[in-house]
Write a structure and sequence with these properties.
Elements lengths: L1 H13 L2 H39 L3 E6 L23 H7 L8 E16 L2 E10 L3 H4 L4 E4 L4 H5 L4 E4 L1 H8 L8 E4 L2 E9 L14 E5 H9 L6 E6 L5 H15 L10 E4 L1 H44 L1 H9 L4 H37 L8 H27 L3 H6 L2
Helix pairs in contact: 1-11, 2-9, 2-11, 2-12, 3-8, 9-11, 9-12, 11-12
Length: 410
């Protein structure tokens, strides 16, 4: 009986192909929009999570400049203001296990942008001055060569680690290890090439940078005696709150500041930013999905209108079917099935187009949308529900028609 009703529904819809297609178009557009927008939002969220995890889940960053009472307020250094409050003594005190027992490694950093050259090839690139702990603290493995040592940092050695992009730009397929490049016309011997890492902390492209000993960068390249930030690796993710307190107390004491709100530094935990950004992207995804759902609502209203027209056109057919024994329930079921067939068929097409649209975004953008089963089931379930809800009124109207009045209808 159900199969026969579905067969009749398809025949009725195929008699008016153009009208059926235009009716389904609202559902198709709505489902496509829901899947594309939800998958794009989930992909963006996954990208953010992976970037923060790539930085390290047990890291703290000390930035020069205070941020007041709010942990989300940007410090002065993040606003382009030069602040010189972080120094060698801060690093020395943070490495003191008595003062900061939960701190594992401390890695100071300075940054600059210079012209990099090899033979006749020149590139403008970022240069990061780091210490010997950078590779382990920031989880940056090498593709070839080796990291510079503490002796290189203490002795201001002119050695360099190349990011994968810079290596390709300057050397192509040639092995850079052992070769000499120039940074700001100062010669540096390449001792290693880092594996591709993508974007790291504070939006830094880790593949497009050159890493040199921090002391060398300070004295030979930048001419400064302070640090741009200090990365602090703690024993585990679980001790981050107390490690944050330890780092804050050490620096307040070292800078002779009694009021934490007047600190000339900021201690940032990437996990806090991750939590905030995850909440924002989740809300944004829901908001975008709700906007896309409006087109589903419009599509559902379109189905109701077309089904009402169909009831009017098929009044004599309804009367004839009732005259030969069709019950009210049979007529109701028939028109409901037709409404559901319209929405389900439109939903299937919308799911296919939504998936292709997500692949298109992946090809054009720098992140991969995530087409989850849940988003597909949600979209499909909503369109089926709309078919039932918006099909009830015309189906009910058809089922209530009197056989005599229907047969007399012109």
């Amino acid at each position: 009986m159900l199969f026969q009703s579905i067969k009749i529904a398809f025949k009725a819809l195929l008699l008016n192909k153009t009208r059926s297609f235009l009716t389904m178009l609202g559902i198709i557009i709505g489902i496509t929009a829901v899947i594309v927008l939800i998958s794009a939002g989930q992909g963006a969220q996954e990208l953010i999570v992976n970037q923060v995890k790539g930085i390290g889940s047990n890291l703290l960053f000390v930035l020069p400049g205070g941020s007041g009472k709010s942990k989300f307020s940007p410090p002065a250094s993040a606003q382009g203001i030069i602040v010189t409050s972080l120094n060698d003594q801060d690093v020395k005190f943070l490495r003191n296990k008595t003062l900061a027992p939960d701190v594992e490694y401390v890695s100071p950093e300075v940054r600059g942008q210079f012209t990099l050259s090899y033979n006749n090839q020149e590139e403008l690139g970022a240069v990061a001055g780091e210490d010997e702990n950078y590779g382990s603290v920031r989880n940056v493995p090498l593709k070839s060569g080796e990291w510079f040592s503490k002796a290189d940092v203490d002795g201001m050695s002119q050695v360099a680690i190349l990011g994968s992009t810079i290596s390709d730009d300057l050397f192509g397929v040639e092995d850079p290890v052992g070769k000499v490049i120039k940074i700001k016309q100062v010669s540096f011997r390449v001792v290693g090439v880092a594996k591709a890492k993508g974007v790291g902390a504070f939006g830094v492209d880790q593949d497009g940078q050159v890493i040199v000993p921090v002391s060398t960068a300070q004295k030979l390249l930048l001419g400064i005696n302070y640090y741009n930030n200090i990365a602090v690796q703690v024993r585990s993710e679980s001790v981050i709150p107390q490690a944050t307190d330890e780092v804050t107390k050490v620096l307040l004491s070292n800078h002779k500041i009694s009021d934490p709100d007047k600190a000339d530094f900021s201690v940032k935990n990437p996990a806090d930013a991750l939590s905030l950004l995850t909440n924002i992207t989740s809300i944004l995804t829901i908001f975008l999905g709700a906007i896309a759902g409006i087109s589903l609502l419009v599509g559902g209203i379109g189905i109701m209108n077309i089904m009402l027209v169909s009831v009017t056109e098929r009044t004599r057919e309804i009367g004839l079917r009732k005259a030969i024994g069709a019950r009210r329930k049979d007529i109701l079921t028939q028109f409901l099935i037709e409404a559901v067939v319209l929405t389900v068929f439109g939903g299937v097409v919308g799911i296919i187009l939504g998936y292709l649209g997500a692949l298109g975004i992946a090809a054009l953008g720098n992140w991969t949308p995530i087409v989850s089963i849940s988003s597909i089931l949600l979209a499909f379930g909503v369109c089926t529900l709309f078919g039932l809800v918006f099909g009830i009124y015309p189906a009910n109207k058809a089922s209530k028609l009197s056989p005599m009045e229907a047969l007399r209808y012109e």
